[in-house]
Amino acid sequence: MRYRSDKVSIADFGGVGDGKTLNTKAFREAIFRIQHLRRRGGTLLYVPPGVYLTESFNLTSHMTLYLARGAIIRATQVSLNIFSIPAFPITITSPRGAIIRATQDTWNWPLVAPLPSYGRGRERPGGRYMSFIHGDGLRDVVITGENGTIDGQGGIWWNMWRQGTLQFTRPNLVEFMNSRGIIISNVVFRNSPFWNIHPVYCSNVVIRYVTIVAPSDSPNTDGIDPDSSSNVCIEDSFISTGDDLVAVKSGWDEYGIAYGRPSSHITIRRVTGSSPFAGIAVGSEASGGVENVLAENIVLYNSGIGVNIKTNIGRGGFIRNITVTQVFMENVRTGIKITGNTGDHPDNRFNPNALPYVKGITLKNIWGVRVQQAGSIQGLKNAPFTGICLSRINLHGMAGPRSPPWKCSDVSGAATEVSPWPCAELTGTQQSGSCASHF
């Protein structure tokens, strides 16, 4: 991690950590100073213990945002309906460190353009609300500290989604676009309005030693979503949210196909957590392609699906060379799911002939207890999934070693030492073809 010889405190710019004072001006002035003074080696912005209520703000290159133990950066809460809400802070105390807290004035939450690989907001047509902490076109940025907290106060956003009153797509908690050399470590992320950490069109990203938490019923609060990004390492973290813990993406239908930027060389290791959806996911928005993904040493519990590789007609793109190994799961609805019929479409202009190409999926050394359904692998009739390799997999049912049989269609590959035994489409213990080197 880069050492910054130049250091400033948010208090130097009028920041007050009382949980009531609005600190937007302090954060923006501090970052403006870092951007324009351009100290050799960059500058560290120190956030001392306290609760710092603020609206969204942009980071800049060559800076470290450092949250002390007991510091909280908290997003202001917003109300995007015509009726206003009282402007009072909602405090969530973290025993581990600082918190950054969002403000409650919804009218001041800026809008940004839709991502070109999505063509519109992920939830609603048109633009999207800017992430709470945002960076575009940056280099050499670190978010770290002593397990301080970045708190999105997402409850009101979740309720607007449930009530159907959102005008635009909800904001992520942290998003980097078109950036490289990003490190995020030793921070707690809490109650994101939407996805928690979203590196998109980025390279050379390290996310480690983070804690990401949100209620299990919070909608679409994915933990970490590397999206059309390369050379990403996610490790040594705990995630418990309302949607996929880690989901690798690369754009949506015709927009992702046209943008054509894959996600590649993604490493996920030593991640623990729970989710009503998937622990480790690829897709379903993978129209730019996903390749060379390694997930290992994963522990999942009380989850919907352990490993979920998902795409759909109209996605196009490819999913290839995916390896998931050394996984333990407990109390999971479905252990392994690979499917070609998941996910919606941005509009009706998608090409039904744009079929995804799925090949070279290796799943090995996976153990599960209290797994209701061992697995399901269902490809597409005109685009079968090939090179599906299963090895040393034991997924035990709710009442002992027996579990419902696998469901398979339009798939080919091989399996060895799998219990319960998978579908006939996988060629037994035959170690031939593209699977031989993976067993």
UniProtKB/TrEMBL annotation:
Protein name per UniProt: Pectin lyase-like superfamily protein
Organism: Hibiscus sabdariffa (roselle)
Claim: Hydrolase is one of the keywords in the record: yes
Swiss-Prot/TrEMBL keywords: Glycosidase, Hydrolase
Pfam families, alphabetized: Glyco_hydro_28 (PF00295)
Family per record: Belongs to the glycosyl hydrolase 28 family.
Keyword Hydrolase: yes
Superkingdom, natural source: Eukaryota
